[in-house]
Amino acid sequence: MSGAQGVVERASAQLTKRINGLRRGKGGSGGGGGGVVERVTTALCGTVLPPPPPPEKPARCRSKPPVPPPRRTAILSAARRPSKVDELLLDDYFLNFLFRYFTAGERRVLAQVCSKWRDVLYRGPRNWAGILPVVHCRELKSQTERVKLYSSFVRRGFHCLALLSATDEDVVDLVDSYPLSAKQLHSLSLRCSSVTDRGLETLIDHLQALYELELAGCNEITEAGLWSCLTPRIVSLTLSDCINVADEAIGAVAQLLPSLYEFSLQAYHVTDAALGFFSPKQSSSLNVLRLHSCWEITNHGIVNIVHSLPNLTVLSLSGCSKVTDEGVELIAENLQKLRCLDLSWCSRITDAALEYIACDLNTLEELTLDRCVHITDIGIGYISTMLSLTALFLRWCSQVRDFGVHHLCGMQNLQVLSLAGCPLLSSSGLSSLIQLRHLRELELTNCPGATKELFDYLREHLPRCLVIE
């Protein structure tokens, strides 16, 4: 209740601010120029324009000049104009203006104030942009609750949905209680669910507009289920923590999804052979490949990637601990279109890999090297020559020292930098970061050399930068 009360109090403060501002603006000679509510509606909806004068008769020999289009001014009729503050709080025009001051998450609380506010918010799909509705299937006891919830999704225009702890019965209920989902839902996420192959097939057959699918912690779904369920209209697929997903599942993805644009995979049992299933069929469409904690992937798997998917722009090998410098050299030489590269938790990466990256990946914009414990100031020196780099993450790189930070100070295009957990950095070395004038975000959490005085110094000299302690 404290969160809801805070949002409502903020709404009341915004309303008071608007009304007081109007009072001050009109308070002069002539008695104030109308009521407060009239001034609010005038400020929100525009000034009432006087009727235009009658046009003059043009001369016979003079061509008629073009008439400019009339100004679009929203005018409230006298019948609809609020006369009291209470009525103003229920006026559609004013509420739509007021709700702009709040985030989508805060609007979720404001929608609980009264039915009028809820209706106004529900009529604007833009009010809910960026929100993913999550249905906790175990908490919805009755059919009435489900129908009411799904009806609110329709009113708010949601195109995405996440089901948590779902079963095959919940899938059937979704199909029956949410018929408009067949054409409305574009993105579906199944998390920690016991949905079987049959349930997944029912769901995908129903959602005819679906093109983005996530399966996380769905241990009842098998490789045979993926072969029978995947449809060519899917362009984004995420598979994580599904114990039955192995090499054969990747074969289904490669064969059945010719238009796949983004593929994210977290599977401990996938081997290099799985990456050999990708063919030239995906070479033009697949741009984003994320392999998280695929422990069995080695440099041989990297060979398959660079030959089959030369147009990748985003590649993540986070937690692929068997990849070495030679694998990074293959990436740098063959994936020239890369914009983002994530090598975090690749414990065998050394400064040599950073030299390959700096020499060949001239358009790289984001580089993540978290927990690459063999990187030293020499490797940071290589990275500092990359003028295209705008985001660099070096969390818990335990061998980076002040000398490496001085190298980074020459990267004038750098906007995001993380040195969190680097134990050898001193306050003196970190203070030199004020030379990065374009920096927008700096993370220094768990840095022993980052003192309160240093944070104050950085905030003073980098006023536009978010410094994270």
From TrEMBL:
<protein>
    <recommendedName>
        <fullName>F-box/LRR-repeat protein 15-like leucin rich repeat domain-containing protein</fullName>
    </recommendedName>
</protein>
<feature type="domain" description="F-box/LRR-repeat protein 15-like leucin rich repeat">
    <location>
        <begin position="310"/>
        <end position="382"/>
    </location>
</feature>
<dbReference type="Pfam" id="PF25372">
    <property type="entry name" value="DUF7885"/>
</dbReference>
<dbReference type="GO" id="GO:0031146">
    <property type="term" value="P:SCF-dependent proteasomal ubiquitin-dependent protein catabolic process"/>
</dbReference>
<dbReference type="InterPro" id="IPR006553">
    <property type="entry name" value="Leu-rich_rpt_Cys-con_subtyp"/>
</dbReference>
<dbReference type="GO" id="GO:0019005">
    <property type="term" value="C:SCF ubiquitin ligase complex"/>
</dbReference>
<dbReference type="InterPro" id="IPR032675">
    <property type="entry name" value="LRR_dom_sf"/>
</dbReference>
<dbReference type="InterPro" id="IPR057207">
    <property type="entry name" value="FBXL15_LRR"/>
</dbReference>
